[in-house]
Protein backbone atom coordinates (compact mmCIF):
# COMPACT_ATOMS: atom_id res chain seq x y z
CA UNK A 1 0.00 0.00 0.00
CA UNK A 2 2.83 2.36 0.69
CA UNK A 3 4.11 1.91 -2.88
CA UNK A 4 0.71 2.81 -4.24
CA UNK A 5 0.64 6.00 -2.16
CA UNK A 6 4.07 6.98 -3.48
CA UNK A 7 2.97 6.46 -7.06
CA UNK A 8 -0.04 8.67 -6.42
CA UNK A 9 2.25 11.41 -5.16
CA UNK A 10 4.47 11.12 -8.24
CA UNK A 11 1.49 11.42 -10.55
CA UNK A 12 -0.01 14.40 -8.74
CA UNK A 13 0.33 17.92 -10.08
CA UNK A 14 2.65 20.20 -8.12
CA UNK A 15 0.88 22.84 -6.07
CA UNK A 16 3.01 25.61 -7.55
CA UNK A 17 1.16 25.25 -10.85
CA UNK A 18 -2.10 26.21 -9.13
CA UNK A 19 -0.77 29.46 -7.73
CA UNK A 20 -1.37 32.62 -9.69
CA UNK A 21 1.59 34.60 -10.87
CA UNK A 22 1.98 38.09 -12.12
CA UNK A 23 0.96 41.49 -10.84
CA UNK A 24 -2.41 40.24 -9.50
CA UNK A 25 -0.99 37.43 -7.38
CA UNK A 26 -2.53 37.21 -3.93
CA UNK A 27 -0.54 36.58 -0.78
CA UNK A 28 -0.73 32.94 0.30
CA UNK A 29 -1.12 33.23 4.06
CA UNK A 30 -0.81 29.51 4.80
CA UNK A 31 2.50 29.06 2.97
CA UNK A 32 4.22 32.40 3.54
CA UNK A 33 2.76 33.64 6.82
CA UNK A 34 1.70 37.14 7.71
CA UNK A 35 3.20 40.06 5.86
CA UNK A 36 4.86 42.83 7.80
CA UNK A 37 3.87 46.22 6.50
CA UNK A 38 6.54 47.85 8.65
CA UNK A 39 9.31 46.14 6.64
CA UNK A 40 7.87 47.38 3.35
CA UNK A 41 7.54 51.03 4.38
CA UNK A 42 10.06 53.58 3.25
CA UNK A 43 10.85 56.71 5.25
CA UNK A 44 8.10 59.25 4.74
CA UNK A 45 10.55 62.14 4.59
CA UNK A 46 14.21 62.36 3.51
CA UNK A 47 15.23 63.79 6.88
CA UNK A 48 13.58 61.02 8.91
CA UNK A 49 16.68 58.80 8.90
CA UNK A 50 18.89 61.75 9.79
CA UNK A 51 16.63 62.55 12.76
CA UNK A 52 16.66 58.96 13.99
CA UNK A 53 20.47 58.87 13.92
CA UNK A 54 21.01 62.42 15.15
CA UNK A 55 22.65 61.53 18.48
CA UNK A 56 24.92 58.93 16.84
CA UNK A 57 26.01 61.41 14.17
CA UNK A 58 26.55 64.10 16.81
CA UNK A 59 28.73 61.75 18.87
CA UNK A 60 30.80 60.78 15.80
CA UNK A 61 31.37 64.44 14.95
CA UNK A 62 32.34 65.28 18.53
CA UNK A 63 34.74 62.31 18.71
CA UNK A 64 36.39 63.27 15.41
CA UNK A 65 36.83 66.88 16.56
CA UNK A 66 38.15 65.77 19.92
CA UNK A 67 40.62 63.40 18.27
CA UNK A 68 41.91 66.14 15.97
CA UNK A 69 42.36 68.57 18.85
CA UNK A 70 43.58 66.40 21.74
CA UNK A 71 44.68 63.11 20.19
CA UNK A 72 43.42 59.55 20.25
CA UNK A 73 43.22 59.20 24.05
CA UNK A 74 40.45 61.79 24.52
CA UNK A 75 37.65 60.13 22.49
CA UNK A 76 38.62 56.71 23.88
CA UNK A 77 38.36 58.00 27.44
CA UNK A 78 35.01 59.63 26.68
CA UNK A 79 33.66 56.44 25.10
CA UNK A 80 34.66 54.47 28.21
CA UNK A 81 32.84 57.00 30.37
CA UNK A 82 29.75 56.73 28.13
CA UNK A 83 29.80 52.94 28.44
CA UNK A 84 30.16 53.12 32.23
CA UNK A 85 27.31 55.64 32.49
CA UNK A 86 25.02 53.44 30.34
CA UNK A 87 25.58 50.45 32.63
CA UNK A 88 24.32 52.28 35.72
CA UNK A 89 20.60 51.49 35.94
CA UNK A 90 17.88 51.50 38.53
CA UNK A 91 15.96 48.38 39.43
CA UNK A 92 14.11 46.81 36.47
CA UNK A 93 10.69 48.08 37.56
CA UNK A 94 11.86 51.72 37.79
CA UNK A 95 12.74 53.89 34.83
CA UNK A 96 16.33 55.18 34.67
CA UNK A 97 16.74 58.82 33.70
CA UNK A 98 20.38 58.38 32.60
CA UNK A 99 21.28 61.80 33.98
CA UNK A 100 24.99 60.91 34.04
CA UNK A 101 24.92 60.13 30.31
CA UNK A 102 23.05 63.36 29.57
CA UNK A 103 25.63 65.30 31.59
CA UNK A 104 28.53 63.71 29.69
CA UNK A 105 26.90 64.55 26.35
CA UNK A 106 26.03 68.09 27.43
CA UNK A 107 22.28 67.52 27.10
CA UNK A 108 21.52 68.17 30.75
CA UNK A 109 20.75 71.85 30.12
CA UNK A 110 18.75 71.31 26.92
CA UNK A 111 14.97 71.13 26.91
CA UNK A 112 13.68 68.71 24.29
CA UNK A 113 10.46 67.04 23.20
CA UNK A 114 10.79 64.25 25.75
CA UNK A 115 11.15 66.76 28.60
CA UNK A 116 7.82 68.44 27.84
CA UNK A 117 5.58 65.72 26.37
CA UNK A 118 7.49 62.70 27.71
CA UNK A 119 8.92 59.94 25.61
CA UNK A 120 6.40 57.10 25.04
CA UNK A 121 9.10 54.54 25.79
CA UNK A 122 9.40 56.03 29.28
CA UNK A 123 5.82 55.36 30.27
CA UNK A 124 5.27 54.23 33.82
CA UNK A 125 5.28 50.48 33.97
CA UNK A 126 4.90 49.04 37.41
CA UNK A 127 4.94 45.33 37.88
CA UNK A 128 5.73 42.97 40.68
CA UNK A 129 9.20 44.13 41.81
CA UNK A 130 10.34 40.71 43.07
CA UNK A 131 9.29 38.92 39.88
CA UNK A 132 10.98 41.52 37.64
CA UNK A 133 14.21 41.36 39.64
CA UNK A 134 14.26 37.54 39.56
CA UNK A 135 13.69 37.64 35.79
CA UNK A 136 16.59 40.07 35.31
CA UNK A 137 18.89 37.89 37.43
CA UNK A 138 17.84 34.79 35.48
CA UNK A 139 16.21 33.02 38.40
CA UNK A 140 12.90 32.54 36.56
From TrEMBL:
Which GO terms of the cellular component aspect does the record hold? cytoplasm; nucleus
According to the lineage, what is the superkingdom?
Eukaryota
Q: Where is the signal peptide?
A: none
List GO BP terms, alphabetically: proteasome assembly
| Record keywords, A-Z | Chaperone
Q: Which family does it belong to?
A: Belongs to the POMP/UMP1 family.
Protein name per Swiss-Prot or TrEMBL? POMP protein
Q: What is the lineage of its organism?
A: Eukaryota, Metazoa, Chordata, Craniata, Vertebrata
Amino acid sequence: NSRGGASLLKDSIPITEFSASGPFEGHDLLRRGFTSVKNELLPSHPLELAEKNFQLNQDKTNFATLRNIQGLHAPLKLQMEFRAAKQVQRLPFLHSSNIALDTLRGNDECIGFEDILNDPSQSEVMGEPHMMMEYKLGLL
